[in-house]
Amino acid sequence: MQGKPRPAATPEQALSAMDHLIATHLVGQHEIAQQVGLSVTDLTCFAYVIEAGENLPTAGDLAARVHVTTGAVTGILNRLERAGYITRRPDPTDRRRIRVAAQPDAVARVREVYEPYYARLTELFANYSSDEIAVLNDWFTRASALAADYLEEHCRTD
Fold this sequence. Notes:
Helix content is 67%, strand content 6%. A two-stranded antiparallel sheet has the order 1-2. The chain is built from 6 helices and 2 strands, in the order ααααββαα. InterPro entries: HTH_MarR-typ (IPR000835), MarR/SlyA-like (IPR039422), WH-like_DNA-bd_sf (IPR036388), WH_DNA-bd_sf (IPR036390).
């Protein structure tokens, strides 16, 4: 598929569009978190557990990803466990550490909320050529790494 003609845009316009997307996303995350009975930070942490799949993360892994202290992640995991979202499992190679696994029914509940949104995004991607999607993927990947580096440099929790 060929991409459709796009209106010209400046970097400033693209940054403004990105800011609008992020703001809308933040509001949406708050609303979705409320729907599933979690805080945004707890939902984000749970999303990282889901993303990890069979490579179960440790509490330390999650603390680093969410940019909270290990003490704070303990509170997050306690809430997620009480709410039935995760289970803790001993690390098979180091009994001092625990691994975090998502509960399948909780994954299904969260996916039920997100799937209609992701379906709409998939429809939106259908308006772009594979080359354009490659550029979008590259940009999102690189912008995410840049954001993570910036947070690491300027928003340390240690």
